[in-house]
Design a protein that fits this description.
With 281 residues, the protein is of the alpha/beta class. Helix 2 packs across helix 7 and helix 3 runs parallel beside helix 4. The radius of gyration is 20 Å and the shape is globular. Keywords: Hydrolase, Metal-binding, Zinc.
């Protein structure tokens, strides 16, 4: 059941007395891999985003210093994937449902005494939902720290491995994801069906982009006939192993830093809450 995650770091394997007895729960990292079940072109399985987020978390936990208390939660396989609903097989939650699931999961962890929650998201269609969840939880619980992060956000050398063009334009089921899946579960990749689709949507001097600072909204039907954007034909397991090694080393560093992060100075916030309470009496 723990898949890529070290068994001793898999939270559901604990009993409730073991959870109750954990030392320093307030500084223990609770890590939630978040993925999606959505189309990834004709050559990759639907599970790509969930598989990558879970594998990266698991491999990073193998690298993490054993003295750092950290547990992975079961992966959340479903995500907000309605931009891919034009292709069969995609299973999508609404933003409201995904938000509710994450909020209630976090509230349960808070009741158990945990105060550091890391959301490691593998799907590019939902970072904004996780960011809103993190902000709402921070507003609800003054002593809860939530880190809404993207699996590709940790330090890595992916651009050097696949090249700048693919790194910037291969946003879905291209070289990066295909190579990683060849390294993780090659039996689920059909390379004979791999495609190269790199649509030219903007002029070189355009200020607009699919993602980034000035994005335009899109669905995958707008971009691709195959459901892929990038060059999957050049993918390899060797590149996938290099990508995984680079990204997971980065995540081990991130987890270490989160563990050492002591949070914010709450004195001003506490004083403001006291003043507001007195003003309302």
């Amino acid at each position: 059941m723990h898949s890529y995650i070290p068994a001793e770091r898999f939270f559901p394997y604990l009993s409730w007395p073991q959870v109750e007895a954990l030392p320093d729960k307030a500084n223990t990292l609770m890590i939630q891999p978040v993925g999606a079940i959505e189309q990834h072109g004709p050559h990759l399985p639907l599970i790509v985003d969930a598989a990558i987020s879970t594998a990266v978390v698991g491999q990073a936990l193998h690298l993490l210093d054993a003295a750092v208390p950290a547990y992975a939660l079961p992966p959340l396989y479903y995500g907000k994937s309605n931009e891919h609903e034009g292709f069969p097989g995609t299973i999508s939650l609404s933003a409201e449902t995904l938000r509710a699931v994450l909020m209630e999961m976090a509230q349960s962890l808070y009741r158990a005494g945990f105060r550091k929650l890391v959301l490691v998201n593998g799907h590019g269609g939902q970072p904004q939902v996780l960011e809103l969840v993190a902000r709402d939880l921070r507003h609800q619980f003054i002593d809860l720290l939530v880190f809404p992060m993207f699996v590709w956000g940790a330090p890595h050398d992916v651009e050097a491995i696949v090249g700048t063009t693919e790194y910037e334009q291969g946003i879905h089921a291209g070289d990066v994801e295909t190579s990683v899946m060849l390294a993780l579960m090659p039996e689920q990749v059909e390379m004979v069906r791999a495609v190269r689709e790199l649509p030219v949507l903007f002029s070189p001097d355009s200020l607009l982009s699919l993602e980034g600072r000035l994005p335009v909204s899109w669905t995958m039907d707008d971009l691709s006939e195959s459901g892929a954007v990038g060059d999957a034909t050049v993918a390899s397991a060797d590149k996938g192993s290099q990508i995984l090694a680079s990204v997971t080393a980065g995540w081990a560093r991130v987890f270490e830093e989160i563990y050492r992060f002591e949070g914010f100075d709450l004195s001003n916030r506490k004083r403001k809450i006291t003043e507001d309470t007195q003003a309302n009496k």
